[in-house]
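Why does residue order matter? Because the sequence determines the fold. Keep that principle in mind as you read this record.
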Amino acid sequence: FMSAVLALAHSAWLESLDQAIQFEAKSHSNPNDGRVLVYVDNIHSEATFEEVNGFLVNAYSCITELCALHDAPLLSCIIIFSKWCEYDPLLEPDVTQVFVPHGESSPHGMSVASALSVLLHQRKHAQLSPLTVHFQTHPKITTFASQASRETLDQLLTAGHTASASHTLATDAPSAHTGTALPQHDALCLGGTFDHMHFGHYLLITMAAIMARTRVVCGVADGPLLASKKFKEQLEPTEARCAAVTRFLHTVRRGIKTHITPMQDPCGPAATDDGITAIVVTPETLSGGDYVNRVRAEHGLATLAIISVPLVFGEDQSVGKLSSTQIRQYLASRAAPALPPPQP
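Structure:
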């Protein structure tokens, strides 16, 4: 079971997020087993690459701080966008709690509480468990990233929103946008180890998912690609890492095809799949995209557009503080046997 947070335009969504993370952390014997969905609604139809990426960087940085604050650094907290996810998380069977920012209402006076009452009726009709609704009660929080996240949220979302019976909020009101349009490709690819999925992975895969029209191909490192990994005993099995990527893609974007496969070399399926037109990388793995294109050229395939997704925003804002290596180190330290007491 999991909690959902409604992150709506110009709202105290961070306070509701704090409330949800605290609730999930306290609801499990291991606080890291908590699960939270952050449902970002009312995105402007012309939101740019920089706006969406900047919001995700700042939001996941806030989430990292809040999870650490509640002693749950590995808690799963996933941001989904109503514009792309293609489902209503409040009608998901395993969502049992919903946290609502204070004071949200539509321009026509329909409160979120009223919209939620419709959803509760729909869940009952579908024979789903009832939702427990929590309205925001936590005081205003100020973290290293909170102010930047509020500002980028305001840029990304429109000022007005309308609640329908299914609680889908949408508007095309004009607003100022900076940056380039989100690239769109029928099929694109990415690759990585994706061990103990963390917020950097979440950001990269989310950006890939929303830039794909029909298909996402993902190579997951296996075999010789794992030889130099530190704390290898804590590496998740390849099958588990592939399954985690599949589940995550299903969470952030439904309605597209996915092909998740182990890869034994740096190119993986990108070297031979002639339907792929773009590869998603980070600035640190940009050279990997160039290498893939050289291999594709040797195979007589068209080169790919290389889309670099920053994991930083501004001069010092980055998405989270944990890497997969740090997570494996953290798990190894917890698994290590306690040292015997010193002998007198």
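The longest strand covers residues 212-221.
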